[in-house]
Amino acid sequence: MRILYFSRDYTTHDHRFLASLAGSGLETLYLRLERRSRQLEDRAMPHGVELVAWGGGQRPFRWQDLLPRVLELRRILRERKPDVIHAGPIHSAALVASLAGARPLVSMSWGSDLLKDAYANRQMQWLTRQVMLRSDGLVGDCEAVKAAALEFGFPAERVTLFPWGINLQDFSGRAGQPSELRERLGWQDCFVALSLRSWEPIYGVETVVSAFAQAAAQEPRLRLILLGGGSQAGLVQGLLAAHGLHERVHLGGQVGQNELPRYYQAADVYVSASHSDGSSVSLMEALASSLPALVSDIPGNREWVADGRQGWLFPVGDAQALSGLLLRAAAEPQTLAQMGPAARQTAEARANWTENFQKLLGAYRMATQA
343 and 215 share a domain? Predict the structure, then answer.
C-alpha cells in the first residue's frame, strides 16, 4: 500500500507517524505544506520515507498559496497514485487535500483545529464542513475531537480514535529522583515543577508563570523548569523579571526529543495550563515518567487525569488555583508518591504508541472501502 502522508510541517509527531508507517513496510510518501521559522524536530527523516518535492514546504503557509498548492497536489496525485492520503491538521493540509479531490482521504485532527479553530468564525465553520464532507475517514486523539466532528456532520462510524502515544521505554525513569540536571542547577533539595508547552496564548504559559510567582513567594523550595519558546516570550520574560524569579527558573529553550526524558526525571510535578488540547503527548510522557500532573480542567486532560489520582485539575486560566496546587504538592510528598505509580499505570494502559498505531492502519483499510 502506498501512503501519501501530508502534514503542515515536520514535527516530533510527524516523525513518529512517518517512522511507523515506513517501518510497517508501507510505501510512504511525505508532503510538507510549510516550513516555519522555528525548527520543530531535529531528527532526520525516517529511513524509507520519500519527501515529495513541490512548491510547498519552503516557508510559512499563506492563504494566497491555497490555490497553487491545490493545483499542484492534483498533479502529484495523478502522477504518484497513492492508495490512501493521510492529511492534517484540518484547516491546512486536510483542507488542501480535500479541495484537490484526494481520495480516499483520511483527515487527521491535531486537537485544537477541531476543538477551537473550527468555531472561530463562520468562514472556519464552513471550511471545516467542507473537509468533513470530502473525507472518507477521520482520525482523532480524544473523545472531545470526535464530539466536535459529529457536530460538523461527520459520521460516527468513520471516526477512529486513539491517543498518538509515546515510546514507553523512553520515559520509564522515576521522576523527582536525584539527577545530573538537578545537581548542575543546585536544586537537589528543591521542589521542581516542569512546564514545556510552547509560549503561545492557547497553552497558557503566562498562567503557569503567574501561579509559580505566587507560590514561590510562600515556599522557598519551589523551582520551575520552563522549556520552549514562542510569541509570548516578551510577556513571559516580563513576568519573570517583575517577580525577580530568574534565579528560581531554568529557561531550557527548545529541547530535542532525545533530551526530554532527563527533564521529566528531574521534576517533581508536570504543569500545563492549556486552554485547549486533545490527548497531549507531553502529558503522556509525564505520566509515563511517573510524574504527577497539575493540568487545566479541559476535556482532553480529563481523559488522562482524574482529580486526586494521577494529579490535580484546576480551572482554565486560574493562576491562584494552580498556585494553591503547587503549594499543596510541595507539602504532600506522600500523596505524590501514590500518584506516581497511578500515572505510570495510566500511560502503560493507554499511551503505548506501538499498540495504538495499529488503529491508524485500521482507519486506512476502512477508508479504502468507503
Answer: yes
Full-model pTM:
0.89
Distinct helix (H) and strand (E) counts, the chain: 15, 13
Residue 195 pairs in a beta bridge with 226
Q: Which residue has the cell 523527582?
A: 176
Three-class SS state of 129: helix
3-class secondary structure per residue, 46-89:
CCCEEECCCCCCCCCCCHHHHHHHHHHHHHHHHHHCCCEEEEEC
CA distances from 238 to 54, 140, 185, 225, 235 (A): 42, 37, 22, 17, 5
Contact 254, 41 (CB under 8 A): no
Q: Max Cα separation, the chain?
A: 65
Burial class for 278, CB neighbours closer than 10 Å (0-12, 13-18, 19+): buried
Are 66 and 12 in a shared domain?
yes
Q: Is the dihedral angle over the CA atoms 299, 303, 304, 306 positive or is it negative? A: positive
Q: Tens of pLDDT along the chain (370 residues)? A: 999 999 999 998 999 999 999 999 999 999 999 998 666 677 899 999 999 999 999 999 999 999 999 999 999 999 999 999 999 999 999 999 999 999 999 999 999 999 999 999 999 999 999 999 999 999 999 999 999 999 999 999 999 999 988 989 889 766 556 689 999 999 999 999 999 999 999 999 999 999 999 999 999 999 999 999 999 999 999 999 999 999 999 999 988 888 899 999 999 999 999 999 999 999 999 999 999 999 999 999 999 999 999 999 999 999 999 999 999 999 999 999 999 999 999 999 999 999 999 999 999 999 999 7
Q: Domain range for residue 343?
A: 168-350
In 3D space, the residue among 130, 125, 124, 75 whose CA is nearest the CA of residue 107 turns out to be 130
- Residue 150 sits in the same domain as residue 22: yes
